[in-house]
Amino acid sequence: MKVLHVFKTYFPDSFGGVEQVIYQIARGCDERDIETKVLALSDNPEPTEVEVYKHTVHRCKQNVNFASTGFSFDVFDKFKQLSKWADVIHYHYPWPLMDILHCISGVSKPSVVTYHSDIVRQKALLHLYKPLRNKFLGKVNKIVATSPNYLKTSQALQRYQDKVDVIPIGLDRLAYPKPKPETFEYWRERIGEKFFLFIGVLRYYKGLHILIEAANGTEYPIVIVGAGPVEAELKQQVHESGIENIHFVGPVSEIDKSALLELCFGVVFPSHLRSEAFGISLLEGAMYGKPMISSEIGTGTTYINIDQLTGLVVPPADANALRKAMGWLWAHPKEASQMGNRAAKRYQELFTADDMVKKYVTLYQEIINS
Predict the structure, then answer these.
(1) Cα(first)–Cα(last) distance of the chain, in Å?
(2) What residue spans of the chain are helical by DSSP H?
(3) Cβ(269)–Cβ(343) under 8 Å?
(4) Domains and CATH numbers, the chain
(5) For residues 124 and 75, what is the distance between their CA atoms, to the nearest angstrom?
(6) Statement: residue 284 has pLDDT above 90
(7) Are 27 and 172 contacting, i.e. CB atoms less than 8 angstroms apart?
(8) Residue 124 pLDDT > 70, yes or no?
């Protein structure tokens, strides 16, 4: 079987949550002798083909980016070429240019779209885009929601429920490197023995401004891993508030990330808008057996984190509730540890990469044979 994944960005140019999902699927498919190629855009696509863990990434020049949507002149011919090679085309939504590719190319290969997120921020443009979106979703053979929570709360998916399957995102624990003792010692000396951890791209919907407000007047260390568009204003907020227990450590290596996940006391994930459709780094916390704090936004975050079972769930954009949740876990380490153990068990039952890949392979076979 040959599978073509289509998304606006991918490794080695970008390292977001959707990219991680594609990577995990491609890695698992390789173990099942399924060949994978990925089509994505790049600002600097030289070379135009790169290898990422036994699969080929075909990169087209991004000519312009508008409203978080990359556009390319080269991608149309490349898509037609790769579609001829593929047995299945696997799209990753949202990327409006992808909708255009599918609808005007005349390609009739079996197709599935993983619906990662509603379009939340560009509300005015969404009204113009809806007819194209509906045509695209109507044409593909299958749609995959990443959690039952998201399927239930996404208005866009309601009209297609008869062809929507739910396949939760999964991670492979063995794909995460084991840090050496000196790496653990480095972070212990830099941060301390007990801290809360956030990992992610610093975007507007991550709710980090709420986390900073919640941290005001507290003493427990909070480590923020990542970089992104709102980084400067977040650091300015910390400076103006006089907060000394928040540590911005920037992007880190996979080994350092694994060390921080093993060392941290708990994972805090304050995303407050539906743009946060699942939460890969929240799932990483569960995989490492950590108690979690997240917000109830009607998405996959509260499919991963169950209130009072695997952690605490607070109202979105409520700094006071977030502060109380962190304080409660900090003051109750035994209960927090038990929540972390239950989080690890839930990960093993529902969120392994092997289980995710098995379900996708079954789906691929289903649409090929239909």
Answers:
(1) 15
(2) 17-30, 75-85, 96-104, 123-139, 148-153, 155-158, 181-191, 208-215, 231-241, 254-263, 280-287, 301-304, 319-331, 333-350, 353-369
(3) no
(4) 2-171+352-369 (3.40.50.2000), 173-350 (3.40.50.2000)
(5) 26
(6) yes
(7) yes
(8) no
Amino acid at 226: G
- At 20, the amino acid letter reads Q
| The pair of three-digit structure tokens given for residue 211, joined into one six-digit string | 């986390």
Please enumerate, as own/partner, the contacts of 52-59 that have beta carbons within 8 Å and a separation of 24 or more: 52/10, 52/11, 52/12, 52/23, 52/26, 53/23, 53/26, 53/27, 54/26, 54/27, 54/30, 55/26, 55/30, 57/10, 57/11, 57/12, 58/82, 59/13
Give just the sign of the alpha carbon dihedral 207, 211, 214, 217: negative
Provide the whole-model pTM.
Answer: 0.91
User: Whole-number mean pLDDT of the chain?
Assistant: 95
What is the Cα–Cα distance from 326 to 342, expressed in whole angstroms? 18
Handedness of CA 157, 161, 164, 169 (dihedral sign): positive
Tell me which residue has tokens 């991918």: 10
The tokens describing 17, both together, are 């949550």
